[in-house]
Structure formats: C-alpha cells, structure tokens
Amino acid sequence: MDYRKAAQGVYDGIGGRDNIVSAAHCATRLRLVIADNDKCDKEAIENTEGVKGVFFSSGQLQVIFGTGTVNKVFEEFISIAGISGASKEEVKQAASARQSPWKRMIKTLGDVFVPIIPAIVASGLLMGLLEGLSKIFPAMAQSGTYTIIHLFSNAAFVFLPILIGISAAKTFGGNIYLGAVIGMIMIHTDLLNAWSVASAETIPTAAAWFGLYDIRLVGYQGHVIPVVIAVWFMSKLEKKLHKIIPEIIDLFVTPLVTVLVTGYVTLTIFGPVFSWIETGVLNGVQYLITLPFGIGSALAGAIYAPTVVAGVHHMYNALEAGLLSANNLNTWMPIATAANVAQGAAALALAVKTKNKKLKSTAFPSSLSAFMGITEPAIFGINLRYTKCFAAGCIGGFCGALVAGITGIGASAYGITGIFGYLITTEYAIPYTLVMAVSFAVAFGISWLLYKEPKPETARESKTMEAGKAADEISEAPDGAVQKMVGKEAGPAKEIVYSPLSGKVIPMREVPDETFAAEVLGKGFAVHPEEGTVTAPFDGTVETVYETGHAIGLTGKGGAELLIHVGINTVELNGTYFEVHVSEGDEVKTGQVLLTFDLEKIRKAGYDLTTPVIVTNTDDYQTVAPNLSVTGKRSEPVLELERI
C-alpha cells in the first residue's frame, strides 16, 4: 500500500490545508477536525486506497484505516499538510468547539444521564417484574417479600435528584458530594413532597430575597432539569471560589459558600423557573404522543433514527427520566423500540437479498444488534450506505410508533429497547409485540422492494478486481517468486487464538462501537474483562504498541494479524491507568503479559472496558469462528482460523 498516496487522498478529500483544524489518530482511525464539513468529499475519501470506512462523530471526521496502517498514513498526512499532530484530548476539545451550542448541550445531557442508566434499569426491571408476577399471582402483593422488594424497586426514582446531582457534578467538574447535597436539598423531608401536593390542604410558603416574593416549599420529586442547572451553577461557583479563596481556608470556606449560595438560588430561582419550563416540555411531549390516532407518536418514530445520525438522541434520556419521575411511565421507550427494530429489519432485508457475501456477513449481525437495542452498526454500517434502506427503516418506525401511540403503552425504566424491552413492559406485552411486529414487517418489506444490487463497476469493486488480478499473477508466477510478491510465506492451514483476558467472551456485534460491531476492521470476538491483565493470544511478534497503551498489534507465527483494543474510546485517557510491558519487535509466547491496566479506575472515569480482539487480516481466512461458550479464563482457546 502506498501510504503517502492514501494520505494525499484524504487530504484532497477534506479540502486541503485551509480546512484542517486539528489532526490525530488512534489505534484504528484518523481523527480529524475540519473547519467546514460541506467542503469534505466523503465519497472520494471512501474510495481512497486503504480506507475501510468514513463517518462523522462528535464533531470529528473519522477515517478508518486499521491497525498498523493508520499511524503510517498519519505521518504522511501531517507531512503533506505541513502541520503537527495534536493529542487526542486536543482533537476532542477542538471537535467540541466546532459543534453548535445545541449539540454541546445535548451531549452534556447524555453525559449526565447515561451513567445512571444501570440504576434506572435495576429499579425499572424490579418494578416491571413485580407488577408482572403480581398479575399472575395476585396474593403475592400482600406478602412481606413483595413489600420489601417494592420498597427498593422504586428507590432510584424516589432519590433520582441525588443520582443526577452526583452525575452532573462529575460531568461539570464539580465535587460529586456537593452535587449530592444539592440533590438532597431539592427533595429534603422539610419540603412538601411534590407527589402529595394534589391531596394537601395547604401548601407552605416562605419569603425569598428579603420579602421580594414568596416561594412554595415543595420538593422537586418528578423533576430532573432543575437539578442539572443547579449543579452546573454549583460547579462553576466552586471552581471560581477555589481560585480566589486562599488555600489555608479553602477547605472549609469553599464548600460552605458553595452550598449556601447554590442551595438558596436553587430553591428561589432555578427550581421554580426550570421546573415550570420542564413541566411545559413534558406536557408538550405527552400532548404530542397522545395526539389523535397516534399521529404524534408516529412522527416521533419516523425522526428517531435521523436524530441518532445527528448525534442528538442522548436528549431522550433526560426526557424519559422526566416522564418516569413525573408519571412512573416511560411512554417514549416504545417509540424508540419501533424505530430501532425498523432499522434492524431494513438491514436484515438487505442481508437476505444481497448476493455480496461480505455485505451479507456484515448486515446480518448488524440487524440482530438493532433488535437488541443497539442500532449504530445497522444505521452507520449498512442503512446509511444504502439510503433507501434507511428510509425504509424510518417508515417502519413511523408505523410501529403509530401503534404505540394508539395503544398508549409505556415502560417502567429507560435504557433498554427492542427484545429486552419486554422486561420493562410486562403490563403491555401484547401491544409491545404488535409494535415490534408492525415496525419489522413494514421496514423489511419496503427495504426488500427498494434495495437493488449495485453494479460491479464501483471504485471499491475495481480495487477488488485489481486484487483478484494480482492473485492471478501470483498463481502464475514461477517457483520462488511468490514469496517475493506476497512478502511472507503462508502460515499453517489452521491457527488458534487464545483469550488475552479473563472475562465473558461476547460476539463482536455486541461491542458498543459501530466500527467494531460492524466488523469494519475485521472479524473476531470481544471480552468483558474481569481483571486488568492482557496476555499474548499466541506465539508471535509485537508489531505495534500504541503510545497511549490502550491497544497493541501482534502477528502470530501462522500469519494472523491481531489487534487487541482495551475499552471503547479509552484513547482519550492518553495512557493514564495503562502500563505496557513489551516493545515493538519483541517475540512473545502465549500467556506472556503484554500490558496491564487499572480496571476500576478506568470504569470510574466513565469508560466501557469491552475489549475487541480483531483479526485485521480476516480476508486471508475462510473461517474465523469464535467459541462463545468458553468459561472466560485467560489463555483459553477462543478463535479458530482456517486459511483460504
């Protein structure tokens, strides 16, 4: 591969030097921030030699080359552009700065509400299971066990402002314990519980701002946005005080002033104002969803997938949390399910109809992932490339959400959609099934009718034809010339890859990153690690060690090229919590320690540690078959490779 030619293709495709804000790379892709996205010729970049995928994400243009290639292309790229490489954090900051205030706000909401999903899911599942079981066994509702479990099934919702306060403080860089205190103030027992207002004879009040006006002494149960605003203010104030308060008294003055000022402003300004705004938004959404004949829900189902593409779908987490907190029913979740299942069905129709084996092998797992609630592989890997399929998915989402609106169904939690959504929709199992069935049938049928096999004269297929021609030349070459042309001898017919980590082994389609899940970089498997040690998966050579320590590339004795990528987006840690124990060029044995990492600290930093193990030269093998039934111990055989 001509790395300079590939770099030149990317450089030309983005519009040259004047359109570059910053550039960096991770283990698999170039990460570029460009000034004007409209000047970017995405199709030209996709047709550049070596490019495996191109997409915009979080304000960055990400160009996938794969391990061992991306660093060489990057060196040529910065040489051509006449710039210096930026750190990943600098690129991230530059990308954020390029985003509109609206997108930055949406991302911030996602950063606040996504981390608390496990708590919401736990409570929601317990609530849903209790309700479902009590329907089957009515006497159960009178038992002591039911009473006890019901008590903690809604704990996350009762104390939701505290959870939000902690998560928001972490997002805004404030003290998480002070954030928790602000959440506690907003639901303090001295305030009238918001859910009791309707039945209260009188509502207590207090004079604010020296008698300027009165406020109602009512808690903020059922509200989420006022807490976020309050903790944002708290974090800003705390940082300012740390700068101006002398260190000798900072320890007690800053927390005191921060809580005193934030608490008072919250109960007298932020709470009343933003709870009124939030109530208006929730009422508007509920009105939309309850429009006659389900029209509002249908429109929401149609636009859901485009908001995923735009990267603003995280705002729905705040919406769903608000619906649950206010009404104990998340009526948005079935709409999301309709949209997700429809995109999966559209991809499945393509998978069934296409004769392209590579496309089929990507589309099948991508569609299954969508049925489980993870749509990025189907949307970004398949449907957006074939826009009629994406449109079919949107139409299917419209129809499925129409059913959801007509039936008025809802869920007891958020963060789960698709097939697993049955666990939080136990009271609506039949209409929920109907929602998915309609979404699936409409999207699959339309996608099947609209999808046409592309003609074989595309740029990518031309490359494939050239590769086939090269293969013919190799087969016709005289003895001794083959190795010179290929670069190395072929390995054994079968090779074994052992697990480099201890933990649960999962299929690649379940990795929460569209590039890995769609197997753009190659087939393989992934591990949910239980300890922070990565060992050699076979006897071989260390080809690439990334400066951030989060990824390592190896070549086995048999020729398998493997990338081990610890976690998702862990490149952003810039090496913190990682320690590499080998160097490039080292010979390693199966089970030898390659790198270690602090599993708990990385998780506390908010990163998913799902670790893909990718055969980057997948095309050299006719079989790449992971054994997903293994016990999850390190150095256990997981993958069998069989050469073509």
Order of strands across the biggest sheet? 8-9-17-13-12-11-15
Mean pLDDT: 81
Radius of gyration: 27 Å
Helix content: 40-55%
Helical segment count? 23
Helix/strand/pairing class, anyone? alpha+beta
Distance between the amino and carboxyl termini: 22 Å
- Low-pLDDT stretches: 456-491
Biggest beta-sheet profile: 7 strands, antiparallel
**Molecular shape:** globular
List how many beta strands DSSP finds.
Answer: 19
Strand percentage lies at: 5-15%
InterPro entries: Dup_hybrid_motif (IPR011055), Glu_permease_IIB (IPR036878), PTrfase_EIIB_Cys (IPR018113), PTS_EIIA_1_perm (IPR001127), PTS_EIIC (IPR003352), PTS_EIIC_1 (IPR013013), PTS_IIB_1 (IPR001996), PTS_Sugar-Specific_Components (IPR050558)
Pfam families: PTS_EIIA_1, PTS_EIIB, PTS_EIIC
Membrane topology: Multi-pass membrane protein
GO molecular function: kinase activity; protein-N(PI)-phosphohistidine-sugar phosphotransferase activity; protein-phosphocysteine-trehalose phosphotransferase system transporter activity
Characterise the protein shown here.
- The structure is a single chain.
- Among the domains are: 3-98, Gyrase A, domain 2 (2-Layer Sandwich); 291-452; 494-643, Glucose Permease (Domain IIA), CATH 2.70.70.10.
- It is built from 23 helices and 19 strands.
- Mean pLDDT is 81; it is low at 456-491.
- It is α+β, with helices and mostly antiparallel strands and 644 residues long.
- 50% of the residues lie in helices and 15% in strands.
- The radius of gyration is 27 Å and the shape is globular.
- Helix 5 (101-113) crosses helix 9 (160-172).
- The two termini are 22 Å apart.
- Strand 11 and strand 12 form a beta hairpin.
- A 7-stranded antiparallel beta sheet has the order 8-9-17-13-12-11-15, with no helix packed on it. Strands 1-2-4-3 form a 4-stranded antiparallel beta sheet, with helices on both faces. It has a 3-stranded antiparallel beta sheet with strand order 7-19-18, with no helix packed on it.
